[in-house]
Amino acid sequence: MAKVLTGKEENYAQWYNDLVIKADLAENSAVRGCMVIKPYGYAIWEKIQSVLDGMFKATGHSNAYFPLFIPKSFFSREADHVEGFAKECAVVTHYRLKNSPDGKGIIVDEDAKLEEELIVRPTSETIIWNTYKNWIQSYRDLPILINQWANVVRWEMRTRLFLRTTEFLWQEGHTAHATREEAIEETLRMINVYGEFAQKWMALPVEKGTKSPSERFAGAIESYAIEALMQDGKALQAGTSHFLGQNFAKAFDVMFTNKEGKLDHVWATSWGVSTRLMGALIMAHSDNNGLVLPPKLAPLQVVIVPIYKKQPELEKISAKAEQIKKSLEEKGISVKYDDRDTHKPGWKFADYELKGVPVRLAIGPRDIENNTVELARRDTLEKDTYPVAGIGDMVTGLLEKIQENIYRKALKFKEKNTFKADTYEEFCDIINNRGGFVLAHWDGTAETEEKIKNDTKATIRCIPLNGKEEKGKCIVTGKPSSQRVIFARAY
Amino acid sequence: MAKVLTGKEENYAQWYNDLVIKADLAENSAVRGCMVIKPYGYAIWEKIQSVLDGMFKATGHSNAYFPLFIPKSFFSREADHVEGFAKECAVVTHYRLKNSPDGKGIIVDEDAKLEEELIVRPTSETIIWNTYKNWIQSYRDLPILINQWANVVRWEMRTRLFLRTTEFLWQEGHTAHATREEAIEETLRMINVYGEFAQKWMALPVEKGTKSPSERFAGAIESYAIEALMQDGKALQAGTSHFLGQNFAKAFDVMFTNKEGKLDHVWATSWGVSTRLMGALIMAHSDNNGLVLPPKLAPLQVVIVPIYKKQPELEKISAKAEQIKKSLEEKGISVKYDDRDTHKPGWKFADYELKGVPVRLAIGPRDIENNTVELARRDTLEKDTYPVAGIGDMVTGLLEKIQENIYRKALKFKEKNTFKADTYEEFCDIINNRGGFVLAHWDGTAETEEKIKNDTKATIRCIPLNGKEEKGKCIVTGKPSSQRVIFARAY
């Protein structure tokens, strides 16, 4: 099997696209900007969903489901939301088709025009807060801790598989609280859940922080984000959690009687991650041979490939392979024994590398003699021979090691590509020539942020939560600043 | 807590609607015909999803995801599909909103009109077969065994929560095969999966059979269905599996090279169940006190309620309750200890009855003295006192008994309400005055079926798969018939 990917040093964007297609993760569909998520890609998404869903439930949330469509007028209710939110939406105007009078195909029935257009949800704050209005009367009805797994649509002009698509899959949490403090606590809880998920499951080190006012979610008082660094030095926003204050409660007239018997507006949060996480996962770890998947999210953790010339050899190998498969499965490891005779071992090796299977075992006639197995790690591409005895414990330990190693490698990369800049010249030089996260002082104004963006395409990714106080001067205006913020070019 | 439901004998439709609302399962949304599935209702749907998903995977299927939107022209490709399929669809015509010139709200941007309208999927055969075209060249690429969990939209004029809504959630399997035989085998496999799920998990006895030609899915060669009987004597189609022949492959030009090296069109199936199953589950078993849930699908299987007057009593009761909770959880039972002091025990009892929790335990001061617990079964409403010792095993066994009992009750109801009719007079009398399934001879023509429907509102639910050969005469025309078919009024 020849190399099927463009080298990532050669053309990173092409490498990414090749990888998504060739590893059977997703492809473009017949509908502009919408993707087909293929079974292998969807299996990874299912793992992500399952782990996150467990984390949401462990923090007290329940799932529910709200309508796909939102009446157009709902968007006008919260002033910042309608102003700030992109108006590129799919608009449903009619509800019936009819046969074309010329007998060729079907046309829209103009008699079936909706009185009010419906928008395919780009996010669900409006329809959900319109619903919460009927659920909340008293502090006893609070908090409401709900999450929704759903598809959303934002009419993007330039799309890239997983990273930016017109339709995408996501979860959106929408919570309602009696106090400001409780809502802020929830906002932070969820950005920490996302951070923990990124680190422990995706093997992805992230920076946690707040967004600058101009990058805030439309309608939020404060937006928190986790930001990851991709191998091309660009940042990727991997999850957000918003403190919405009383904005949506005011817009949708959601009031409650508090413990003191007084009427007050309800406090809100919302938080979400999407199939964009797939893009982050792919870009953060993979190489020119294909995907590198952290074992905890790999749909298939171990593959066993037989190497043989004659049928009697295969029979012995298969018996051994099934025995190993069983002992690995007993440890909770997902294993496939690939004895297809339609492909050569070399082709299989390359294909499983492309698909990022963390551990590959090969068994040949000599292994049968010696009761051994050849093991290859996807992350380091190292090969070695091991005794079959104790293989279950060995592979269990190795999968943990691989998970750890992938994380450490990504962490090292992030550290190596995080810079401090104290002058604007230095800043521009790093952004233009090296990429990565750049820590710099900023005067806190939208004007400066805008100038930097226009000059360099870099934006403020976040104001770090764990950033230490440090007096300095804005790299552009020289005005005083009390903390460095993280700049980067971003996806 | 006063009775909150309309009696089902009084007004069955109102009883159902009350139950869905009062048990917190779902409610109507601000968008015509679209429902909000509330956390408790969604928790049941999640259980249904999880079990079915496991059954699909065990039969070799993988999940994937295809676009929400389908280009309008795709619907015209398969002639029967466009003719037979309802044209009541949500049509997306524009992709942008803009601020209204009068400054009030937002309007549709007429400059952002789509060249070709997009239809929100009412079902995905067309977009999926357009995709499969690129995936299939040779018999080696077959079979393709894919399922999708998704939302779909059909613009219904009269909607009822879960039973018929404009947007609903479902799964749709779409498989591609090299031979006719294999596709038929798959179609049958999946209707059997649905039948097994209905029986073992939903405690719902169903009739399996084929649809008459006029009730077939648009584009299918043969449609199989499972049909359940509700307590008002009406039938409910709970799942369908379609053998699509080569119709969609021909419409979308999907050909493959078979083992003999010849080009042929691919054979197809599709199969699905939806949130309509929730309606079936609710209507089949519930009573005037509320939901009756089969333990295997109950989000909460056991609730423990303390009964006390003074605080020291509560402390002792709580210690005992936590001990019982732990021993039940160790058996894999989901348990809640409800020690809220905001509601009286009587209110809680009624509320958990309304929500269909299978087993309720109450612990009072006397139970502490005797080391006992009062147990109430939701299905029979029987109460009795049991020793705490061995409670884990006792409740495990009881949950199985309840599951079994709910099924037996539904089966008995179905048997009692399945009739044979040998004359049209008898037939009309049963349909009009008793309801239920009516087994009758039919001459096999659409005209007779239509006449019966016009006269009685009854339709052929299915031609039973396990129906025995029996020579007879059509109840309307007297023409010969070789098997009885099942008629009923239906949801």
How would you describe what is shown here?
- The structure is a homodimer of 491-residue chains.
- The first copy, chain A, is an alpha+beta fold.
- The first copy, chain A, has 3 domains: 12-91 and 120-285, BirA Bifunctional Protein, domain 2, CATH 3.30.930; 300-398, Rossmann fold; 418-488, 2-Layer Sandwich (Translation Initiation Factor IF3).
- In chain A, 33% of the residues lie in helices and 27% in strands.
- Chain A has helices at residues 12-22, 39-58, 79-84, 125-132, 180-200, 247-251, 276-285, 311-329, 345-354, 365-370, 391-416, 424-433, 446-456; strands spanning 26-28, 35-37, 62-63, 69-71, 91-94, 97-99, 106-108, 113-120, 144-153, 167-177, 206-210, 222-229, 235-245, 255-257, 263-265, 267-274, 302-306, 335-337, 359-363, 372-377, 383-387, 418-420, 437-441, 459-464, 472-473, 480-481, 484-488.
- In chain A, strands 3-9-10-16-13-12-11-24-27-23-22 form an 11-stranded mixed β-sheet, with helices on both faces. The first copy, chain A, has a 5-stranded mixed β-sheet with strand order 18-17-19-20-21, with helices on both faces.
- In chain A, helix 2 crosses helix 5 and helix 8 (311-329) crosses helix 11.
- The first copy, chain A, is globular, with a radius of gyration of 26 Å.
- At the A-B interface, strand 2, helix 2, strand 3, strand 4 and strand 5 of A face strand 2, helix 2, strand 3, strand 4 and strand 5 of B.
- Strand 5 of chain A pairs antiparallel with strand 5 of chain B, so a sheet runs across the interface.
